[in-house]
Amino acid sequence: MMRAQPAEVDGDTPALRSAADAARMVWDESKRLWGIGLPIAVGTLSMYAISSVTQMFIGHLGNLPLAAASIGLSVFATFALGFLLGMGSALETLCGQAFGAGQVAMLGVYLQRSWIILLATALLMSPLFVFAGPLLLLIGQDPEVAREAGRFALYILPSVFAMAINFPTAKFLQAQSKVTVPAWIGLAALLAAALLNCLFVVALGWGLPGAAAAYDLAHWGIALGQTAYIIGWCGDGWKGWSAAAFHGIWAFVRLSLESAVMLCLEVWYMGLITVLTGDLQDAQIAVDSLGICMNVNGWEGMIFIGLNAAISVRVSNELGSGRPRAAWNAVVVVVAEALLIGVLCMVLVLVFRDSFSVIFTSDDALRRAVSRIAGLLGLTMVLNSVQPVISGVAVGGGWQGLVAYINLGCYYVFGLPLGYMLGYRLNFGVGVMHLLLPSLFVCLFVCLRKSVHHRPIMHRRGFGPACSVVLPSRRSSC
């Protein structure tokens, strides 16, 4: 059960005293959330759809190329995406709270710090992609699948550096609710990815290398487009390159690592499940069917990433301006709406369980395998609907460390060992492993019990000499 409204706070939104007040609050908060979240969801869906389009074209090349792409995208690309997006979430916390406190000039400095950290991180992750094939063989992956997946992972390495630029620029813009232009950039990149796949895979017959090239170019289009928009049209937050970006960088690294651990423990869990299915009977069918279901689940997840970003912006802005009740109202509304969307997605999956896999494959055996686990997919989509928005609340409040511990316990202490036992020892197969994805759902409700009366994180830690932040009646200099 959610707690009652917090006590009266000076300068905060008025307390709710009637049903009419509650209805008005829900309507106003929904407009704010979706005004931010819908364009973010469109942009994120477009970026995710680049992966889906890539898999669709590869899927019609055969089961082996599809298995290779599934591992390349859901394991190696997801590994990089999870870590870089998680580290970029530190920028989401700091930029959101600084913007709420009226310190807009600090946003550009934070952005440059994040670029430095994420590009260095991408460089450190490069060997994982270079030696992907031997690593997969080392953990017992099917040799043929491992060889093709290793090639594909190497081909998509350039996209990792694009993500290192893209995620900070996206968080910089989201903190200011400048989300429309990035949505259009994402849609343009998606169209380019489809056209490039048609050219490289279909017309020129380049196969896996062609699909990877289209994937890389689309991601670089997003990164460069957003960067050009910031430098050319965001003069209030971008004041040019500054040496202040190197001041207090280790404090920024610490928060970035907390953010990364929080998200990665969740995202990598899905990749580990994909790898483990490679050892089940009929490995190609197991990997492919799970990959398709995760792809569909990911489409729903992109909507909730939009809400995740929206609630993070709302919470960080309101806490930065000293309005905890307004932050609480936003949390209540977003959780309720996320659950409704999850139920709708489950209904759609169950209605089209026998047909939605046709866009990924023409193999009848694979389509039947997907249909068998569609019910579990639908349940997963309901349970996973709330988790991203609660994570967004944690990011907005700067509580990434708490959520990291929760993720570690739920996914790795409980979920993964149980999934291994049921999938391998008791022969329940891939379906049970997929069902265990929402294990985080219950535990993350702990975040809802954490008071929104927390001091903004920029007042609790040092982030360099440039980041003096002033709130009413108190001052903190980092």
UniProtKB/TrEMBL annotation:
The chain crosses the membrane at residues 33-58, 64-85, 115-140, 152-169, 181-205, 217-234, 255-276, 296-315, 327-353, 373-395, 402-422, 428-448. It holds the Pfam family MatE. One of its GO terms (cellular component) is membrane. It is a multi-pass membrane protein. Its main location: membrane. The keyword Iron does not apply. GO terms for molecular function: antiporter activity; xenobiotic transmembrane transporter activity. The keyword Membrane applies. Keywords: Membrane, Transmembrane, Transmembrane helix. It is found in: Membrane. One of its GO terms (biological process) is xenobiotic detoxification by transmembrane export across the plasma membrane. It comes from the Eukaryota. PANTHER family: MULTIDRUG RESISTANCE PROTEIN. NCBIfam families: matE (TIGR00797). Belongs to the multi antimicrobial extrusion (MATE) (TC 2.A.66.1) family. This is Protein DETOXIFICATION. It comes from Panicum virgatum.
